[in-house]
Every structure is written in structure tokens, then in C-alpha cells.
Amino acid sequence: MDDLESIAEKIRTMEIRGAGRIAVAASAALRDYARTLGSLDIEEFNVKLEEAARTLVETRPTAVSLPNAVELTKRHSSLRVDEAIDEIVDNADRFITNAGEALGKIGRIGAERVRDGDVIMTHCNSHAAISIIKTAFDHGKDISVIATESRPRRQGFITIKELSDYGIPTTLIVDSAVRLTMKEVDLVVVGADSISVNGALINKIGTSQLALAAQEARRNVIVAAETYKFSPRTLLGEMVEIEDRDSDEVIDPEILKELPNLKVKNPAFDVTPAEYIDLIITEAGAFPPAMAFTIIKDYLGLELTL
């Protein structure tokens, strides 16, 4: 359990960050923990497995990839512990393999939507969005990228280094320059932390700003998202919880002590309505937001109970 709790803490503190990376880390942690429970009977095994699953899921409330990965990993139908462990190991290995392959498929599908000469704006640090950009570049398209800082944690700095090291001309802008800069942009490509049944996108705070500016400037917005980032619980009416993070990500705690009348809000995500999204690129194909229900129903295969 110590190793699993260590992974959970790294997810909580964003040492492991990004919806896809969180999902893979959680699946692997649950698999490895299950392997340590071979001496238990099946009832004890299931109790311990559920406890471990809750520990992982409770670390980040917004990224639906986390509970989806845990649910897809832990489910088994065995009455013997050794067989249950084998099922869970197979589930995790399949999930991790599919997650890795998904990025390549998203890149190939999404690159078809990028035209030669396009200037692409992106936000935060999304492996799926970067896969589209890199694949378009690999296809010989003369593209460049405008990336936001993505405050307060500045994940955009990870993006600009990755793209620059790849040889892609990249410009860094402050988040508040999005609307001004949008006139220079041909296409917006962002990732996803969650997608609800109505096609709304929950992603890094500031994403909706890009989408609104793109709508005003008549630029297309493409979302790159593995199918496990769609939220099955929204079929049952649940809202995706928006995570509020600690104020010390925004302001020095010592300064805050000197300002007793000040409150700091630090929402980590925002919601972009489906009508501002042109297309969602998944490993299963390119879909309009209105088909989110189909993806949840046909590709996730998670059992839901009212």
C-alpha cells in the first residue's frame, strides 16, 4: 500500500500531471498493489482493492480519466484471488497499452485537420494535442504554434520546450493575450481532462477563454481526447466537480498573511460549452461534440447503476 499511496500523493501534488499520465499511473499502481494481496481470501481481497481504488480516485476530482482507469482496471469476475489478480493485471496491461497506442492514432487522425501553413494555438500541456501537432509537422506541413503560459503552474513551459526541441517554431504568450493574438491563429488544438455527455469540455482553466476568442474570430477548435476521458457518470446527471487548488500556487503564503481581507480562488479547470467545439479527435475517430453519448456508450463499456 505504501507504493500505491506514494503514487496517489504524486498525483495529488501534480508531480504526476496530465489526465492521460494520471490514468496510466493509477492503473499501474492498482495492478501492482493487487499483486501483493495474494495471501488474502476473496472477500478481504475485494475490500482492500476498493480501499486502494478510493485512495487513487480521491486525489484529483476533475480528471475523469482517473476513475475510468481505476474502474477498468479493478473489475473482475473471479471467486479465487489468484484468478482475480490475473484479470486485474490483464486489465491494467491492456489499458496501458491502449493508452499509449491512442496517442498515435489521435495524432494521425488530427493531423488530417491541420493545413500546410497553419498557425496553431494550444493551452496547457496535453500529450494528445501535442501528438496532433507533431504528426502534422512530421507529415511535412509548415506549421507554427502559439502556446499559453497556463498559469498558475505554467504547464505551457513544458509544451514550449517539447515543441521547440522537436524543431517546431513556437511562440509563448501570457494567458491574457489570447484574444489579442487569436487574429494570428488558424486553428486551436487543446486537450481534455473530462468530456461530459452533452459534449462540454472540462479542461485546464483558461481553455474556455481560447474557445470564446476562437468563436469570435471564426477559428475552429479541435479537442484531442482519448475515449477514457469521457465521463460516464454524467449520463446519470452528475456534474463534473471543478477542483479548487491551494492558494499558495497563486500567491506567496507570507504575503497572504499580510492581507487579512483577501481571499484567493484557484480553480484548476473550467467548462467550455459544446457549441464552441468543432470536433473531438479520439483514437476511435473524429466526432462532433453531440456524439459524446455514443462514445461513452460504445467505447467505454463501463457499467452504471442508478
TrEMBL record:
Name this polypeptide is given: Ribose 1,5-bisphosphate isomerase
Tree of life domain: Archaea
Function: Catalyzes the isomerization of ribose 1,5-bisphosphate (R15P) to ribulose 1,5-bisphosphate (RuBP), the CO(2) acceptor and substrate for RubisCO. Functions in an archaeal AMP degradation pathway, together with AMP phosphorylase and RubisCO.
InterPro entries hit by this protein: IF-2B-related (IPR000649), IF_2B-like_C (IPR042529), Initiation_fac_2B_a/b/d (IPR011559), M1Pi_N (IPR027363), NagB/RpiA_transferase-like (IPR037171), R15Pi (IPR005250)
EC number: 5.3.1.29
Family per similarity comment: Belongs to the eIF-2B alpha/beta/delta subunits family. R15P isomerase subfamily.
NCBIfam families xrefs: eIF-2B_rel, ribulose_e2b2
Chain sites annotated for binding substrate: R17, G18, A19, G20, R60, N203, K204, K229
Annotated source species: Methanolobus halotolerans
GO BP term, example: L-methionine salvage from methylthioadenosine
Glycoprotein keyword on record: no
EC top class, as a word: isomerase
SUPFAM superfamilies reported for this sequence: NagB/RpiA/CoA transferase-like
Recorded GO MF terms: ribose 1,5-bisphosphate isomerase activity; S-methyl-5-thioribose-1-phosphate isomerase activity
Additional comment: Reaction proceeds via a cis-phosphoenolate intermediate.
HAMAP family reported for this sequence: R15P_isomerase
Keyword annotations of the record: Carbohydrate metabolism, Isomerase
Reactions mediated catalytically: alpha-D-ribose 1,5-bisphosphate = D-ribulose 1,5-bisphosphate
Active-site residues from the entry: C124 (proton acceptor), D193 (proton donor)
